[in-house]
Description:
288 residues; Rossmann fold; 11 strands; two-stranded antiparallel sheet
Amino acid sequence: MENVRERLLKALFDTRAIRVCPAGEPFWYTSGKIGPYYINTHFLYGGEEKANSLLKVIDGVKDNKEECTGVLREIVMKNYNEDDIYRNTIDILVDAIKDTIPDDDYDYISGGERRDWFFSIAAADLLQKPHITIFKDLDAYVFQNGRSERLISVNGARVLHIADLITSASSYERAWIPAIRNAGGVMKHSFVIIDRMQGGSELLEKHGVKSNALVCIDDGVFREACRKNYINKGQLEMVKKYIENPDMFMKEFFKNNPDFIEKALNSGDEKTASRARLCIEKGYCNIS
């Protein structure tokens, strides 16, 4: 029988929630840097098409803050009952929370706009906890017993925040933690599907938040993926070099592939070209 890690890893690659580029063809990131993999955790909702469909729904309802959570709860729980991959992911998350955090050690579950809601709303429903829906402007609403009310005060209550992904935890520091603090609450725990191991958990610890994750992105994840034939050996070696030193990986790649920038600039794809221009402006490559 497959263990929990194997099941989740299979789901991540089956849905392309983790996507590794072919050897020698790194992705362009919005920062103007390059790297060998993308992570779209929300694809665990049942695939890219389903995930993008839910994002469209979110964009259509998030301005009606009082109704937002109720609409999304109905949709995600319907998908939970119908989609094996999503149900498996949520069940793994809920079981991990039960095994890690005592039920009496948190009073609310929170999730931040937008992708956290893919996981936080369903988990709150199954764990029978009120859900605090936090918006990017730090406004927040509590959903409980089918009703949603603006968050005013929680009188020192303890909160577990559920997120799809943690990188540097900038969203936590900018919005999620302050929103709970402004209501007199304490964010005591965080649980994410994926931790990119880029300093986020350490930052949360400084804010007094205990960080937990189902999957931590290190070379062990990709070695296992290679053993399972989700990626090949060439992709594995590329990812290992990147994880060891992302900036050195980038510099060496540009040195060994001097025409990569030029091809991006002339690709005809404005998104790719703009990221290549940003790369030059930021000095990530030695091209002027």
